[in-house]
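User: Can you help me understand a structure? I only have the sequence.
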Amino acid sequence: MSEQKPILRVKNLKTYFDVTKGIFSPKQIVKAVDDVSFDIYPNETFGLVGESGCGKSTLGRTIVKLYDPEDGSIEFNGTDIAKLKGSELKGFRKDMQMIFQDPYASLNPRMTVGEIIKEPMIIHNIYNTDEEREARVVELLRIVGLKPDHIRRYPAEFSGGQRQRIGIARALAVNPKFIVCDEPISALDVSIQAQVINLLKNIQNEMGLSYLFIAHDLSMVKHISDRIGVMYLGHMMEVGPSNDVYHRPLHPYTVALLSAIPIPDPDVAKAKNRIVLEGEIPSPINPPKGCVFSTRCSRATERCMQERPQPVKVGDRLVSCFLYEK
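Assistant: Let's start by predicting it. Here is the structure, written out as tokens:
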């Protein structure tokens, strides 16, 4: 990957939210994403994992500019889009799309499937006539495994898995180069999840797409991702090749996260060393002074409490932990 030029380069990205309750209350800022950096390469799937509330979805929405960053840069094909607005941003939105977590809430119930998929084409002036757009809609329905006669139906007439396929078709309507998949399978039945994952992989191979795949299911992320980033309390703790992170985790938080994956074999599960993290997750309004994981880490030292570790290169990985300083 290092020989290629990244399609997306995120540098020191910060996304903060002001949650102050009243004009006389002390100012309170939620640091949802705090100084995060990583790259995504052409045709690559970058998996992003972590506990609920760690900032994964906020990071994805910031990258596609649904949220404005507080600081940092988002370089897409060499252009920093972090500060772009209005018409300047519109061109990049065509190349960067998003598949949302909830297929029930992300589709307009008053629009037909055809209207939902055609809408992005109209906004970005793709294809000259409505006939051309309708032909493209039929083609997209075929690509995602739906039938041409579904074009006249409404979202309420479909199952959750079918609705997510419609959401995927909508994201593909403008021929993007990069898609943020924000937990696209978490609201689906287990029997449907593998189908959607395989569909995304097939589409990637056919169209040469890059994905940021956000999820909390580490085994599923390993299956689809080339590299994995592990987030905790708005910070990136570890980044590396999927198999390496999954089988040989370095950061204490990654080790604990992987130990919690359920194993279907009872005998193997009993022998497994499960690491139970003690203590509560700190508030993103008032994070720890040093390493954000120090309050729950069994290997934390006094230095961890006072200083924030910077990413250290360990082979093909980056790890934000003092344990790996040379």
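Now, to help you interpret it: The chain has two domains: 8-95+176-324, 103-175. The chain is about 35% helix and 20% strand. Let me know which part you'd like to focus on.
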